């Protein structure tokens, strides 16, 4: 499978809901943790800190009643912390955040009077909540104040300075862990949402690419088939042999149209400007249009060659569909590293407007294609009933392209 097909295949899987292989994402990269797993890791860390604090309280032997009080306070802190760690909690109203932080502060500091330093681990939860809910300018100073406040309980109990420093350091570390794991869970959630959006964008982009290429390729072929069919209808009574020759041309164009559809589906859509000019000459001659060609395109990248060929196809298609031209000028010239394609014809009705709801967007598609190769497309009405289309681009654009970008000489084939 080519890289282009692989990209479209994976994007289509994301669109229709099918899952990629285990251990891979839609882009073929190793799978990221699921949002649910990230939340489970956060909850496991919170419960572990709560369990450590509960074990410290139980080791003091304060009795069943006090142990139940400690358990109730821990449950309340855990509930508050889950609310503070939920996505977008920092966007809650200030009144709610002030009330929630006030209750958590009471549940953090009041039990210190009873459980003393053994309750100090809960200050880390409070410090983490400050970082999660408040603006950074206010949150980080308060976070430091909470950490420094944990120097006091061991000192009031007559413990060593090392115990005070340990409790302060563990409080600050717990706050960072709570803050970091919460933000990590939020980031994983955003990552999964963004990955889904990118997959949908890839599918949309591929649909637009397919529609654009189908319009560019088939619009020309169908116009040619229509023109030649009308010519055959006129030739059959008086010139049956020439009509047979035209029928062979129609069959050839039909086969090429089928190949073009397959080309669009496969993503391999390289075209040749020289070949398109030769084809346009034969088609316009059959339509009794006097055509003059100047062809000196030099050497250009395959990307530019393909885009300019598509521009020429659309220009000839519009000429056949929307004008009554009897003369046309086509020039493809390279000068100072830039290739310029000019298509000019007469027979344009200045008041013409296509009323069809599906009249196409060929020129818009081509303008997009030209921008992709750092080029530009312009159209204007000339004097009388003339119409001019000019496409110009560097022969070797610096912008990378997904297709093969090898240099190709654009030598002209003899007209059929």
Task: Spell out the blueprint of helices and strands.
Blueprint: H1 3-16, H2 35-59, H3 64-84, H4 94-109, H5 112-115, H6 122-133, H7 136-149, H8 152-156, H9 161-238, H10 240-266, H11 273-286, E1 290-296, E2 299-301, H12 302-322, E3 327-335, E4 338-345, H13 362-372, E5 376-381, E6 387-394, E7 407-409
Parallel strand pairs: 1-3
Antiparallel strand pairs: 2-7, 3-4, 4-6, 5-6
Helix pairs in contact: 1-9, 2-3, 2-9, 3-4, 3-6, 4-6, 6-7, 6-9, 7-9, 9-10, 9-12, 11-12, 12-13
Overview in brief:
The chain has 416 residues and is of the alpha+beta class. The chain has 13 helices and 7 strands. Helices cover 63% and strands 11% of the residues.
Structure report:
The protein is α+β, with helices and mostly antiparallel strands and 416 residues long. It has 2 domains: 7-199, no CATH class; 273-416, Heat Shock Protein 90 (2-Layer Sandwich), CATH 3.30.565.10. It is 63% helix and 11% strand. It has helices spanning 3-16, 35-59, 64-84, 94-109, 112-115, 122-133, 136-149, 152-156, 161-238, 240-266, 273-286, 302-322, 362-372; strands at residues 290-296, 299-301, 327-335, 338-345, 376-381, 387-394, 407-409. The strands form 2 sheets. It has a 5-stranded mixed sheet, covered by helices on one side. It has a two-stranded antiparallel sheet with strand order 2-7. Strand 5 (376-381) and strand 6 form a beta hairpin. The radius of gyration is 36 Å and the shape is rod-shaped. The two termini are 37 Å apart. Mean pLDDT is 78; it is low at 1-30, 354-361 and 400-416. Pfam families: HisKA_3. Residues 206-272 form the Signal transduction histidine kinase subgroup 3 dimerisation and phosphoacceptor domain.
